[in-house]
Design brief:
Strand content: 5-15%
Number of helices: 15
Structural class: alpha/beta
CATH class of the largest domain: Alpha Beta
CATH topology of the largest domain: Spore Coat Polysaccharide Biosynthesis Protein SpsA, Chain A
InterPro entries: GNT1/Glycosyltrans_8, Nucleotide-diphossugar_trans
Helix content: 25-40%
GO molecular function: glycosyltransferase activity
Order of helices and strands: EEHEEHHHEHEHEHHEEEEHHEHEHHEHH
Shape: globular
Keywords: Glycosyltransferase, Transferase
Strand order of the largest sheet: 7-6-5-8-11-10-12
Protein name: N-acetylglucosaminyltransferase
Number of strands: 14
Length: 415
């Protein structure tokens, strides 16, 4: 990537052209689009990032009173402290009402910093590229009004050279059918200093969205999910650097936030601080909890943090949050905006199940499990539906079949 020999200022500090901090920022500051280079923002823009600002809701081209009122009320109550999921539920309901009132109005996405956007996980392989496309398809089908953005390695070619050029076909499909903005990124920028652990390189790639300051607010969704409902109401949350759902399945031992869905207010300052704090022994979830665990808005996990493994659990206390409520899988599914695939030791849904492992992990029926008279198998039915639906959509949208089941030694594996 070309170096620009001029003085730059970030958060009031002069940075030399070859400063590593500036190099980290380069993918977000300048990147190719349509064969042209985007101009760098001026010094005033970078300096302005120091100033705390209220979230501007420009997605629908006008001020939404309900959303603004909810935002102001929450900001007054929350201050700099964590806003728990139960406390934010009423705000989300008001935001959802405002979102629904504008769902049939045209968006004024404009240009500059006044446009929110959905961003899926950085596509580092054909499998994750297809996953991202499936998320985009769901967002479009469910009526999301936000822009859609996809990061992908800059050495991938959008030009389709043959019928077997699947990656290029999927990139073209994302752009032409689902109105996705394609953003090529220099992979070496992501991997610099990360060491040999490739999974860590890919894990921190989602942190790139913190540097995308052309957007006022970003919703980053992991791509190994089934999106079930529109989530545009999250753009109307009160101002906060980060909002995430609770990783409820780790309670009570660990009180952590989950990075499967993140609502972000991009900032060069925050992005630089995150990259400074990143190291090979930290994954994105740990890093984000270290940085924002005490200040983030905590989203209700029932709507924004459901995992497929919950339908295999025998005890649902962590999900329900109490001892008296009765688990109702259909009610749970009706409340959820998405469901995240998490069923260790089973592989992700684009990989077929090893039959021995499947037999051990399949959700058990409530009555007479494992016998010809077993009944009460609704958890199992829904759980299978999650995977069947994912694989069906993968075939229909991406024209891809699942990968063969891996050979897993169930006697020697360890968590």
């Amino acid at each position: 990537m070309e170096h620009f020999h001029r003085q730059w200022w970030i958060a009031g500090r002069q940075i030399e052209p070859l400063d590593t901090r500036l190099l980290v920022l380069e993918p977000s500051i300048i990147r190719p689009r349509g064969g042209q280079k985007r101009e760098r923002p001026g010094r005033e823009l970078l300096y302005w990032e120091q100033v705390d600002r209220a979230v501007r809701i420009a997605q629908y081209g006008q001020t939404i009173q309900e959303g603004e009122a909810a935002k102001a009320a929450a900001a007054k109550q929350a201050g700099d402290k964590t806003v728990e999921g139960e406390k934010i539920t009423q705000l989300l309901e008001a935001s959802n009402k405002a979102s629904l009132q504008t769902s049939n109005k045209s968006c004024n996405l404009g240009s500059g910093r006044e446009q929110p956007g959905y961003i899926t996980q950085y596509a580092t392989s054909s499998a994750y590229l297809c996953n991202a496309l499936m998320v985009f398809e769901a967002l479009q089908r469910l009526g999301s009004r936000a822009q859609r953005v996809l990061f992908y390695p800059e050495d991938w070619d959008v030009h389709i050279e043959s019928d077997r050029d699947r990656d290029s076909q999927l990139l073209s499909l994302a752009r032409e059918k689902y109105n996705v903005q394609l953003v090529p990124i220099d992979v070496k920028m992501i991997k610099a200093g990360a060491g040999p652990d490739e999974s860590w390189d890919k894990s921190i790639s989602k942190l790139l969205v913190f540097g995308e300051t052309e957007y006022d607010r970003i919703i980053h969704i992991d791509s190994d999910v089934n999106v079930l409902q529109n989530m545009d109401e999250l753009f109307f949350l009160p101002s906060a650097k980060v909002a995430m759902p609770r990783a409820y399945w780790r309670l009570p031992d660990e009180k952590q936030l989950s990075s499967l869905l993140i609502v972000i207010e991009p900032s060069y300052r925050e992005f630089s601080a995150l990259m400074d704090a990143a190291r090979p022994d930290l994954y994105d979830m740990e890093l984000l909890n270290d940085q924002y665990g005490d200040s983030a808005i905590v989203l209700p996990h029932r709507q924004y943090g459901l995992i497929t493994g919950e339908f295999r659990a025998e005890n649902h206390k962590n999900y329900l949050g109490n001892e008296y409520e009765i688990w109702d899988p259909d009610k749970v599914l009706s409340e959820a905006k998405l469901v995240h695939f998490s069923d260790w030791p089973l592989p992700k849904p684009w990989v077929m199940w090893p039959q021995k492992v499947l037999a051990e992990t399949l959700p058990k029926c409530q009555n007479n499990p494992g016998t010809p008279k077993e009944s009460g198998c609704r958890n199992r039915e829904l759980w299978r539906t999650f995977y069947d639906d994912f694989r069906r959509r993968r075939k229909n949208i991406c024209k891809l079949l699942s990968y063969p089941a891996p050979d897993i030694d169930t006697d020697s594996r360890s968590q």
